[in-house]
From TrEMBL:
InterPro entries: Gram-neg_bact_OMP, Gram_neg_porin_domain, Porin_dom_sf. It is found in: Cell outer membrane. It comes from Photobacterium gaetbulicola Gung47. Pfam families: Porin_4. Residues 1-20 form the signal peptide. The lineage of its organism: Bacteria, Pseudomonadati, Pseudomonadota, Gammaproteobacteria, Vibrionales. GO terms for molecular function: porin activity. Residues 7-307 form the Porin domain. It is a multi-pass membrane protein. PANTHER family: OUTER MEMBRANE PORIN F-RELATED (PTHR34501:SF2), PROTEIN YDDL-RELATED (PTHR34501). This is OmpL_phopr porin-like protein L. One of its GO terms (cellular component) is cell outer membrane.
Length: 329
């Protein structure tokens, strides 16, 4: 199961669910349905100092279609929606394209190119990835033309991604690209870069660079992520900062059917000083038990190291405890 962790970083060539069930197939075409039911109880203090339990339960359903065009080229389509109580269905993915030995090309709402880099350390069942926020063009977004390819190089694996988000009239077009080189001995390297215009009235460009490294040995997995960003606050950090720098460290140990993970996240505003410069500072621990490939339960705790400073609320600096159960289909 430790290999699942490194697979998060190197299996970017397919976004279909690993548990998806094929519901139709013939000589040239297939259709698969997958998703998850995930119950999540989130316990944290509010601004009054009272501990509250929030229901963050969600359901995801995805449908993946594929049909052969020639012996080496195929067409594909993918949709995934997420529903939470009281909200409309959120279309997470909505795209179609072609694929082959050259890789895959998709257009629609699909992933950008930096998610596979943040996946090096985004391995927890709930917490983590607080220092890995991405600009919109590098994250999952619509009006997006994306390419991904995975290639064997003398037993090692090279995965490359590139995408371009078209201008929809508001001059918010952008692009990102990234690459991961995974050695057969368990060491992997990743790097990526993205830019995006921030609209007609801002006259600014968001820029973001990521670098990551990981190592898998037996049941142990360790990884580190570094990011440097300019003017990315409009898309990621809620106008908190225009120049940010951060990093995340992650470790995991697999014991039979249980995975123990820990992460440390730190993100700073390089234009601020004192306690207000710390945008994220947290340690998170979780344990996830896999009963089988379809069902798991987990407990996750985040130690929030931020102090109340500036416009930070008590709730925004509170620790957080989460209990979850997830059924994949």
């Amino acid at each position: 199961m430790n290999k699942t962790l490194i697979a998060l970083a190197v299996s970017a060539a397919s976004i279909t669910s690993v548990n998806a069930a094929e519901v139709y197939s013939d000589a040239t075409s297939s259709l698969a349905v997958g998703g998850r039911f995930e119950a999540r109880a989130v316990m944290a203090d509010n601004d009054a100092g009272d501990t509250k339990v929030n229901d963050a339960t969600r359901v995801r359903v995805n449908v993946a279609g594929k049909t052969d065009i020639t012996d080496t080229v195929y067409a594909l389509g993918f949709w995934e929606g997420e529903y939470t109580d009281g909200n409309a269905v959120n279309n997470r993915h909505l795209n179609a394209g072609i694929g082959g030995d050259f890789g895959q090309v998709r257009y629609g709402k699909t992933d950008g190119s930096l998610g596979m880099i943040t996946d090096f350390t985004d391995i927890m069942s709930y917490h983590g990835n607080e220092a890995g926020g991405k600009i919109a063009a590098a994250d999952r977004t619509g009006n997006n033309l994306a390419y991904v390819g995975s290639f064997d190089i003398m037993g090692d694996n090279l995965t490359v991604k590139a995408n371009y988000v078209f201008d929809n009239g508001s001059e918010e077009d952008g692009y990102s690209f990234g690459a991961i080189y995974a050695l057969d001995m368990g060491l992997a390297f990743g790097a990526g870069y993205g830019e995006q215009e921030l609209g007609t009235n801002t006259n600014r460009t968001a820029k973001q660079a990521f670098g990551a490294i990981s190592y898998t040995h037996g049941d142990f997995y360790i990884a580190g992520l570094y990011q440097d960003a300019r003017n990315a606050s409009d898309n990621v950090f809620g106008n908190l900062a225009s120049e940010t720098r951060g990093y995340e460290f992650a470790a995991a140990y697999t014991l039979n059917n249980t995975v123990f993970t820990a992460t440390y996240n730190y993100l700073e505003d390089r234009n601020a000083s004192g306690k207000a410069a710390d945008l994220t500072d947290s340690i998170a621990l979780d344990a996830t038990h896999y009963f089988n490939k379809n069902f798991r339960t987990y407990a996750s705790y985040k130690f929030n190291n931020l102090d109340q400073a500036g416009d930070r609320t008590r709730a925004g600096t509170s620790d957080e405890f989460v209990l979850g159960a997830r059924y994949d289909f």
